[in-house]
Amino acid sequence: MLAYALLFTFAWQDPAPAPTTAYDPMRLPASATAPPLSLTLHDAARQRELPLRVWLPTATAPAPVVLFSHGLGGSCENNQYLGRHWAARGYAVVFLQHPGSDEAVWRQARAGERMAALQQAASAQNLLLRCGDVKAVLDQLALWNAAADHALGARLDLDHVGMCGHSFGAVTTQAVAGQAMPLLGQKHTDPRIDAALPMSPSGPSRGDSKRAFGKVAVPWLLMTGTKDDSPIGNQSPEDRLAVYPALPATIDRYELVLHDALHSAFSERALPGDSGKRNDNHHRAILALSTAFWDAYLRADGAAKLWLLADGPRGVLEAADRWQCERAVVAGTVR
């Protein structure tokens, strides 16, 4: 098998798109991005306070919104390299913090008890709370956007929303973006989400993968690595790779597999126990492909979609990285 693969598992109805060089997802404006805003959502109905960190573009016109859900034991201050780049590209990026599965879990535990505390926090109950957090944040963003005296007033295009997350944040993303999770007791898909990007995705803990992902109705971009395992959640690199083939043929779907990337490759620092030097090109690839994905599906940018479907990714990936994509098939034709 070739180390680098661009796969299409259907027959094109029209000629494949020609390579494009005009579109560049790494091109940034000369003006610097403003520092992020620190906000707090007071969810009285659920008695939860959610810290938020919001990056805004320099332009004041309403911007498409991208939500980011942190991993287990993280915070809204994680993965800020994504916020800086996406905001510079014209997106309002909202980093959520989830009480009960955030950094307080390990900070408040004794050194020898931190792993057990984290394992306990990786629960269905906390996943339920996280799904509720996403809904509450989208509801509150609409209120802030309508308030002329708020920092987010008239700054958000909430008709175009992307959802992203890493690890437990990827599970959160999957739950609100179409995955069926019977153990949660109810459906948590939020119809306001237009595209999803799970980093270090997870297969269902029980049941058939095809059934779990069969009702997904929005485009997904999956990102993982060949060494992307985790001591919590029992997800192996092979488990993460099983998500892509389970997605339905009725959506546009993409998968990036970074060679030798550990679970921490999507974060800004190594995790305890990591070994080996971090690959700086991993973040470049993550930024380029994620930006093109948001441009394609939150801005309907045809050049960005062609870049994804043609040879654009080859310009940012290394030889051993893997990339595959499939366009939606509807009633026997390629959409």
Structure write-up:
α4 packs across α5. The protein is 28% helix and 21% strand. It has helices at 80-88, 104-107, 114-121, 124-146, 168-176, 209-213, 237-241, 243-246, 280-298, 302-309; strands spanning 37-43, 48-55, 63-69, 92-96, 156-166, 195-199, 220-227, 253-262, 322-326, 329-330, 333-334. The strands form 2 sheets. A 9-stranded mixed sheet has the order 1-2-4-3-5-6-7-8-9, sandwiched between helices. The protein has a two-stranded antiparallel ribbon with strand order 10-11. It contains 10 helices and 11 strands. The chain has a single domain (37-299), classed as Rossmann fold (3-Layer(aba) Sandwich), CATH 3.40.50.1820. The protein is α/β, with parallel strands linked by helices and 335 residues long.
Give a short synopsis of this structure.
The protein has ten helices and eleven strands.
What's the helix and strand layout?
Blueprint: E1 37-43, E2 48-55, E3 63-69, H1 80-88, E4 92-96, H2 104-107, H3 114-121, H4 124-146, E5 156-166, H5 168-176, E6 195-199, H6 209-213, E7 220-227, H7 237-241, H8 243-246, E8 253-262, H9 280-298, H10 302-309, E9 322-326, E10 329-330, E11 333-334
Parallel strand pairs: 3-4, 3-5, 5-6, 6-7, 7-8
Antiparallel strand pairs: 1-2, 2-4, 8-9, 10-11
